[in-house]
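Protocol step 6 of 9: fold each sequence in the batch and record its structure tokens directly after the sequence line. For illustration, a two-sequence batch is reproduced in full.

Sequence one:
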Amino acid sequence: MTAQHDGDGTDFTDFTTFTHSLASARYEDFARSPAAAATSAEDFAAMTEYLGNLYRGIEVTRSFADDNGQVFDCVPIGSQPALRGNSPLPPEAPDPPPVAPGRHGGAQSVPVRPQLHSERLDRYGHPMSCPPGTIAMRRITPEEIAARGSVRDFHHKHPRGAGRRGPGAPAAGLRQHTTGVQEVANLGGHSYVNIWDPQVTGAAFTVSQQWFGTVDSTPVQTVECGYQVYPGKYGTAQPVLFIYWTADGYQHTGCYNLECTAFVQTNSAWLLGGTLGQASVTGGVQIELEVAWYLAGGNWWLYLGGVPVGYYPASLFGGGPLATGAGRIICGGEVYNVAGWPPMGSGAFAAGGWQYAAYHRDVQYVATNNTPQYAKLTAYQPAPNCYTSLVNSGPTPWYEYVFFGGPGGSSCS
């Protein structure tokens, strides 16, 4: 069977059929589809070449759709893009980064669970889990790339490569950051990221994330993780788990999730690029994702809920600063404007506080001597008429924290 039908009339295409369709795709046919937009023959050739390379030689053991209908394919760990070829299998993950003493929970906060569970089935009856030794890769189509313009634009963090400047830099045209920032030498760190689902449409996006990066170096280098509401990329207005990196200020390097030969995923329970399935309620229960980065053994390891998910090899950063450590911690929000500035966080200003404004709490970093330290953040809010941030510290479970966000609007530059 190559396609299964859901009650709403949609089809599920198996991996073999999908890759065969890529191999036989013709520009003349694609150009007649609404998804083609202004895609040139040259761009189409680059798309099919990129996707052919991304999926070449992969043996998929299982495929399924998430709650939003995005398709994921279970591939052997050694067959993912960053390891394909002669790369050795991943090293054993180090223990999570050390954390300062104290209780790191919240009475009214609910932790995000990994998206994949053996007991879950998708709308087609497929198990929403990957067998041992495999990880889930989100399936990418020519139509998704065409919506961004080209393969190069597809890999950029911002639509069509616009506004590429480092996090914490002055606002650049079509994007804004509102965060808590500390410049300090570090090997990574930790925070609890409060999850919301603000209303975002089209190609605009809103993000809450951690950045560990360089301090005003040229070029900027970062590793990033958090959630993103980005309908133009993921086809959903729900919050999506994402990672990103760049070694040259978002110019020629960087990509989301597993979309290039960079991140090595080792954990089969999390869906990079998959919906998180939960969001906080105004005045009610708060949903959190515990996120940590840790540079150990020559790799930037990512931990979610204290469990290793995978790593960026520090060699990606060449002779740059992030090959040996970061110089800046950033926790907070980012938005991208298309036809109006979207909400950030919950859509409430920072002064709304607990259960109303978005936050990162228990913000820590790992000093270069490998000891945990509580951060000392500084609020960064270049457009306070649209987005604000408020930094403070308190008793357990807050420690160092930042509230941030705002409604956006028509004039936030």
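Sequence two, same batch, same settings:
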Amino acid sequence: MSTARQRIVIGGQALRWEACGPASERTYVLVHGIGMSHRYFAPLRDALRRSGRVVTVDLPGFGGLPMPHDDLDVPAVGRILAGALRALDLRRVVLVGHSMGVQWALEAARADPTRVESLVLIGPVVDAAHRTLLAQAVALAVDTVREAPAPNALVFSDYLRCGPRWYLTQARHMTSYDTEAAIARATQPTLLVRGDRDPVAGEQWVRRLRAAAGEAELVEIADQPHNVQYTAAREVADAIERFAGPLGGLVAPERPVERRSTSTR
């Protein structure tokens, strides 16, 4: 399967995207979290590419891209992401966000709802139980102990490439953003995913988000931490593919649905 890479500029801000997998009507777009890059989506990308086109992005200031001169808040980054979807002419998008990528995905879907078919929100932040930067740091430290060496290495190296200035700028926006309100106003069917050992996106918090959403399904992957899309990529891909359904239509439950994976991977 061919892979295409390109750097594009939207609203004066540089992004990098990579596409792989067979041409299809539906496209999975994977949106990384704060400090991160497309690299920690590699296992999920490879698992999803069997069922459609997969696009990974590096947002402005991340993945080695230049730090923007402007102070971009969550809606601003979301609009840039939506602009990238238009520039790439992507339609029937399943927008998959992880961690702070959830917030950017929600804002991109709000900015251009006609292109975003559904939302997959993995490890959504910021948990109401720890909204301050200090509390977030503690949750991340706990998660680091639970993660495997490979994702920890990716996280630390990407944090270095991002740099503390841009990280802290975005962390301030992350902790002030109202994720619950954003999910409540989203018009797309939504899948929430978390590892059941994730201290960053706690169980009660994710259940609260599911209750706030109009159409939502919740899947918890057993014995997995915050970076569940890396450590249990096959299980996460299965949940996404089951949720998205065949190309003829999306599976949209009439009421909230919960599934729990028994994976011990």
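Proceed to step 7 once all outputs are recorded. Observation for sequence two: The beta strands are 3-10, 13-20, 27-31, 53-58, 93-98, 116-122, 190-195, 216-221, 257-261.
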